[in-house]
Amino acid sequence: MSHTLSFADGQDRCFWCQGSPLYVHYHDHEWGFPVADDRRLFEKLSLEGFQSGLSWYTILAKRENFRAAFAHFDFDRVAQFGQADVERLVQDAGIVRHRGKIEAVIHNARRAQEMVAQEGSLAAFFWRYMPGAPSTGEAVPAQTAESQALSRELKRRGWKFVGPTTVYAFMQAMGMVNDHAPGCATRAQVEQARAAFNPPR
After folding, report:
1. How far apart are CA 163 and CA 72, in angstroms?
2. For a tag site, which of 63, 149, 156, 193 has the least CB within 10 Å?
3. 14 touches 181 (CB < 8 A)
């Protein structure tokens, strides 16, 4: 079974991004490209938590609403949110109105502040879990030993909604692994970007 499809522009892409120009743009310009920006890392992990039980397309389509609702995922600002903010967000039809997940983002923002104080940055911490062996993109797992280890450590530090499957989706998206399918036009671009990337220390 092929893991790629040919699109109208003549490009072969991972089959999962079919059906929407929004998905195609995300696939071509974001998914798998390495990220070292703490705000973007926090945003992505937060959105992966919201995605649990839903499609990623649902979250992607609402991403600008999430950004507006959560102070563009500036975790220093989100950490200051209180109960009134929770109630405001539960009523916000532009996002996923799941009280537990909303509260988890605020809770995790405080954990993110602690991590920056301890580790220097979120990026310095997360990139320690980059797999040693490169992915072939052939058989993509739901979780890996690295995502299990990262999930355990995040939970030990008090983070919520960070199971190993959620964490692996985060690792794929943030470029810690290149899971673009063989034959996908973006795979080589991601590999080039990863080769030029210096993981934060």
Report:
1. 23
2. 156
3. yes
Q: Which entry of 56, 57, 153, 191 is annotated as an active-site residue?
A: 56
Q: Supply 88's token pair.
A: 């405001």
Q: What is the pLDDT of residues 112-148, one digit of tens each?
A: 999 999 999 999 999 999 998 888 878 788 999 999 9
Give the pLDDT score at 2: 63
Tell me the pTM: 0.95
Residue indicated by tokens 């537990």: 100
For residue 19, give the DSSP letter: T
Rg (CA), the chain: 17
Verify whether residue 16 is a known catalytic residue. no
Is 31 labeled as catalytic in the residue annotation? no
Q: Which residue has the tokens 């580790």?
A: 119
Q: Is 159 a catalytic residue?
A: no
| Spatial separation of the C-alpha atoms in residues 17 and 8, rounded to whole Å | 13
Please answer whether residues 3 and 138 qualify as being in contact, where contact means their C-beta atoms are separated by less than 8 angstroms: yes
Alpha helices in 95-184 (DSSP H): 99-119, 122-126, 145-156, 164-173
Beta-carbon contacts of 132 under 8 Å, excluding residues fewer than 6 positions away, are: none
Tokens of 47: 């959105």
In the set 23, 31, 43, 48, the catalytic residue is 48
> What value does the mean pLDDT take over residues 52-64?
93
CA distance readout (Å), 177 to 1, 35, 85, 129, 137:
22, 11, 35, 10, 9
Contact 131, 146 (CB under 8 A): yes
